[in-house]
Design brief:
mainly alpha; Rossmann fold; 2 domains; binds tryptophanyl-5'AMP; protein biosynthesis; ATP binding
Length: 322
């Protein structure tokens, strides 16, 4: 089974990205052929300054490696290092119409947030389809907010295959219901654009600040509290079923305040990411090795995308006089 997914370096990754995509990708690494990339071109739709984009890309690369991405076993690269994908984007753009693209929730949401409605933002789903289809991906682990993008990808692939023959592999979204929408500090979906995120590699001080600002109701230590809301939901991500039951009991039993629970959540986060945080600090000191890994990753990725592109050029008439 070939698994592929990507993450935008549009800021610091957060617990929503981690539980719905990064963690699951690393689990797949044990059993499947894994393709994972940092979506640098996608991030250009929201990150304008070159130095910010470069720093974000480096950050996400370090995060993934620290969490356990193994570039020897898997293919791990930065999107803009594989030009075949952008070439495919143009070709695939004939397979979707403007009215269809106008239905994209993600485009509408971003424009509503004040992001410039650039041509790039509009054709974002086509680039994403190319990411997926260039590597003959079968399964794409994502959060719920990417569901419609996967539907566009399937529509594009279906239409392309109808016109040119059975060339593209039909991918499937792989959404895990219990982590499909991870809530943020304010209870809305955790999202970089809402500034309600928890960056699990942040300093202890910043993590503490973030965890402390999770919204709760105003019930005090001696009140019975309902096991619900962002504090309960975020903490639950770190617990198994028994742990969740125990947490629910703590909410319901007077004597524990939200402040205590928050500090326990902080401990749980630091413990869960403890080893990864150490590995990240070590990797950070060795940019040459990381750069070499990425160069090798892009080479491996190109070797997979190039033959597919050859088939596409042949079928579409772009490979002429041969
Ligand atoms: P991005 O960078 O916004 O997010 C990366 C992954 O994290 C998921 N996610 C969440 N899941 C649950 N709860 C949340 N609060 C939450 N916030 C984010 C996203 O659904 C995503 O799976 N367009 C993609 C990047 C991309 C891509 C691709 C993904 C580009 N090309 C090809 C798969 C295949 C994006 O913006 O993800």
């Amino acid at each position: 089974m070939r698994i592929l997914s990507g993450i935008q370096p549009s800021g610091r990754p957060h617990l929503g990205n981690y539980f719905s995509m990064m963690k699951r990708m690393l689990e797949y690494q044990e059993t499947s052929e894994l393709f994972c990339f940092v979506a640098s071109y996608h991030a250009m739709t929201t990150v304008e300054k070159g130095e910010d984009l470069a720093r974000n890309i480096e950050g996400v690369v370090l995060d993934f490696l620290a969490l356990g991405m193994d570039p020897n076993r898997s293919t791990f690269w930065v999107q803009s290092d594989v030009p075949e994908v952008t070439e495919l984007t143009w070709i695939l753009s004939m397979q979707i119409t403007v009215p269809q693209l106008e239905l994209a929730h993600s485009f509408k949401d971003k424009v509503a947030q004040g992001i410039i409605p650039s041509g790039g933002l509009f054709i974002y789903p086509i680039l994403m389809a190319a990411d997926i289809l260039a590597f003959r991906s079968e399964k794409v682990p994502v959060g719920k907010d990417q569901k419609q993008h996967l539907e566009f990808t399937r529509d594009i692939a279906r239409r392309f295959n109808n016109v040119y023959g059975d060339i593209l592999t039909m991918p499937e979204a792989d959404i895990s219901e219990d982590v499909a929408v991870v809530p943020g500090l304010d209870g809305r979906k955790m999202s970089k654009s809402y500034k309600n995120t928890i960056d699990f590699f942040a300093s202890e001080k910043d993590l503490k600040k973030a965890v402390s600002s999770i919204i709760t109701d105003s019930k005090g230590v001696d009140d019975v509290k309902e096991p619900e809301g962002p504090l309960y939901d975020i903490y639950s991500l770190f617990l198994d079923e028994d742990g969740r039951k125990a947490l629910a009991d703590r909410f319901r039993t007077p004597g524990t305040g939200y402040g205590h629970i928050k500090m326990d959540l902080l401990k749980a986060i630091l413990e869960h990411f403890g080893e990864a945080r150490e590995r990240r600090a070590t990797l950070e000191k060795d940019p040459d090795t990381v750069r070499d890994m990425l160069a090798a990753g892009a080479k491996k990725a190109r070797a997979v995308a190039a033959p597919l592109l050859e088939d596409v050029r042949k079928a579409t008439g772009l490979r002429y006089m041969r």
